[in-house]
Structure formats: structure tokens, C-alpha cells
Amino acid sequence: MRTGFAGKKVLVGVTGSIAAFKVAGWVSTLAKAEAQVSVVMTESACRFVTPLTFAALSGNQVHRELFDPGGEERMDHIALGRDADLVLIAPATAATIARLANGLADDLLSTAVLAARVPIIICPAMNSRMYLHPATQENIGRLKKFGYQVLTPGEGMMACREEGTGRLPEWEEVSEYLLRALTPQDLLGERVVVTAGPTREALDPARFLSNRSSGKMGYALARTAFRRGAQVQLVSGPVSLPVPPGIDCKFVTTAREMREATLGRSDWATIIVKSAAVSDFRPAFEQAEKVKKETAPRSVELAENPDILAELGKSKKKGQLLVGFAAESANLEGEGRRKLEKKNLDLIAVNSITSETTGFAADTNQILLLDRHGAEQLPLADKEQVADMIWDRAAVMIKSRSEEPGKQEIQACRQ
Ligand code: PMT
Question: CA 188 to CA 327: how far, in whole Å?
């Protein structure tokens, strides 16, 4: 599968920190994802990891010297930054951060960065006293003003055996920022609320009513919206997935908690996507004590939960895009269209829950996408790709809505 890194030219600047060995793994991952990786190492970086390591992992010769005669024929100090799609500096020491903050072009990496006009992502790694020193903080502030993305280091035990802030950020976080920098920003400026996962409705302290939603679909929607430039707030039921980097997540348990969290964010949102599987009913009475088998009633009285999506449809703001999901076992188009109309939606993603490759808990999904005027059958794909296909449609709708009201329908989009 081609990833967002495939074919992209990534320039990795490695500077002198013990964390350089971790970046060797990142370079290997990027190369396996079919990125074209070039590595520039500072003199002190070469004391921690040999250039041979990075050359072997990237599949390319490592660049080190500003005055390397071979390199200067190619004008490496300009070409490396100019020809990249993205520059990643990791680990970034206090010295390199200071050099870049002051435009000091005294080595190959700092000259290449000055010549670059592409996204620059910096991953500081150093002792926490050095990181928190006003000089470093001021330098980081300057880099941010230049438009560089400076990630916050992690906390914990460092190589110097001190606890604090200064650990190299984790690859899971860094890779999301790299992908965001490489992805067309067609959701830039959009404020997106995504709901994900199941709700749980307690019968007693031990038992609950719920469903098979894993949160995979909703988390994929949140992650891909972030990559496309949106600010994302996730409202999540209980799932065992990590919160994607860069995303603000509110965890809830019950449908009523999900209602409060979602409606509370709805005025802020320009797009709301309700992929959560909300329990339509809850036990009418929650028992404070665990119900004993011997005395348990043989039936449970149910109370109806609020329909959050229907409420959002009633209070929809002008220009806001409301996207629902429908989990169906039969008559997909009919049921989807009924919910689209009844809940006043702009778009609905209908998925079958009778196949092992679609719907609940699967890694893949297949969506029938409906709006007021058209239907589009999307292919079976992994949930991240499906999320991107839904965003493709939503991005066109929201753009055409702000430009020409009334032109947002699927048929119009296809012309
Ligand atoms: O989480 P995964 O394992 O990845 O699975 C993904 C999924 C199958 C949960 C997802 O793709 C999906 O179909 N989500 C919607 C499930 C659902 O509740 O469908 P529904 O047809 O019952 O509800 C229709 C819409 O109304 C949904 O957007 C739902 O969020 C919303 N709803 C439903 C009931 C309710 N009380 N309040 C709601 O807001």
C-alpha cells in the first residue's frame, strides 16, 4: 500500500544528542514507506551514530561537510533544502536550535535550512534544564515565528538520569505532523467534531448494555481531518485506541454524556461527523448494588436515549455541515436516505454490518455515501482511506457551500 510518504523527498537533519539512535529507526521507517530520504549529520551527531548507519538505512549517501568538494559541485548547501518536500530536524540540540533561530549559516544543516522553503519540523531533545532555559525557550519562540513546527519534547527519565521535559517526541506523534505537512490542507480553517466508539449504559456496577463499535472508524476520521489541516475535537466512547496526536479528546461513557459533550461543541464546529454507535436505549433503572443471579429479574425495562444527531439536525447552524453514519443490515440506501431526511443531514455514510470486512471492529469498511441528490458507492478500503474519501466529499461540499450556496450535492460535485 502506498502511504502518504511514498515518493516524498524528506531531508532529515540529525544533530548531536544521544537520541540520534532513535532517529535511525525513523529513517528506516520512512525509507520502507517509500520516502526518498536524505540525511544531513552535524559533526557532533557523528560522535553518537556513524554516518554509515544512516547511509545504510536511508539507502543514500549521508551529507556532512559544508565544504565537501563533491557536494559543492551539486551546491548541496542550497540544493538539499531547496529540493526537499519537507525538512525534519531530529534530534534538535539546544545548539542547533540557537543556530537556526539566529540564521547562523555555519554548517551544512543550517545553510540547507536557510535555503529551504518547505515545511520544517523540529524535534528538540536535551536535558530539561537546557530545554527550559529562557535562551532555548526564546530561540524556540523565534523558530515558531518563522513558521517552523517545533514539537514539544516528551517527559520522563533522560539519558543524564534526570526526570523532566526533554525526551525526543515519539515517532507516532512525529509521523502525524510529517503527514500533515505533506498533505494538501483542504480542511484548513475548519473546526471538526467527530464522535467515535460505543456508549455504555449501566445495569449495575458490573454490567452494561453496549455494542461492538471499536472506535476505529471515528478515530480514522479524526486523524485524517487533522492531517488535512482541520482543528479536531473528538468525543469518544470507551475504546482501547490511543488518542491521535494533535487532537483534543473528551471521553464519555453514556449516550447522555455524549449528548452533552457533542452539543457543547456544536456551536464551535463547522463540520460535525457522528460516527459513534450510540445506544438507543438504556436500562430504565441503574441498580446501585450488583444484581444477584438468584434474584435478578428476567427482563429489563428500557428508557429511550436522546437522539443526538437528530438534535444536531434541528439546531444546525447556517453553513454547518452535518454528517451522519448508518449501520445497516438490509436496505442500505432506503434506510440511509430515511435517516438523512429525518435527521436533517447533509451527508450520510451507510455501512453494512453483516460482513466481516465492513462496519463494527473491522479494519476495513465500504461506504454508500448519500446526500440529498445523489449516491456514491465507495470501494472497500482500510478505514483511514475510507475516512479520506468521506473528507474528499465533505471538503468539496463545504467549499462549494461557502462559494456558491446550493451547489454542494454529490451530482453537482461530479460535474
Ligand atoms: O467503531 P468501529 O468498530 O470502527 O465501527 C464503525 C461503525 C460501524 C460504528 C460506524 O461506521 C457506524 O456505522 N456508526 C454509526 C452507528 C449507528 O449508531 O448507526 P445508527 O444507524 O444506529 O445511527 C444513525 C446515526 O445517528 C449515527 O450517526 C449515530 O451516531 C446517530 N445516533 C444514533 C442514535 C442516537 N441515540 N443518537 C445518535 O446520534
Answer: 29
The model's pLDDT over 369-401, given as tens digits with 9 standing for 90+, comes to 999 989 999 999 999 999 999 999 999 999 887
Among the listed residues 46, 123, 160, 413, the single catalytic one is 160
Measured CA to CA in angstroms, residue 202 lies from 17, 171, 288, 297, 310 at distances of: 51, 38, 10, 15, 23
Select from 3.30.450.20, 3.20.10.10, 3.40.50.1950, 3.40.50.300 the CATH code of 9-182: 3.40.50.1950
- Whole-number Å distance, alpha carbon 1 to ligand 1 midpoint, is 28
- Written as nine digits, the cell of 295 is 434474584
Domain residue extents for the chain = 9-182, 191-279+303-414
CATH fold, domain 191-279+303-414, is Rossmann fold (3.40.50)
Q: Which of 265, 309, 311, 314 best tests ligand 1's pocket when mutated (most atoms within 8 Å of CB)?
A: 309
pTM more than 0.90: yes
Q: Which of 213, 241, 357 to mutate to test the pocket of ligand 1 (most atoms within 8 A of CB)?
A: 213
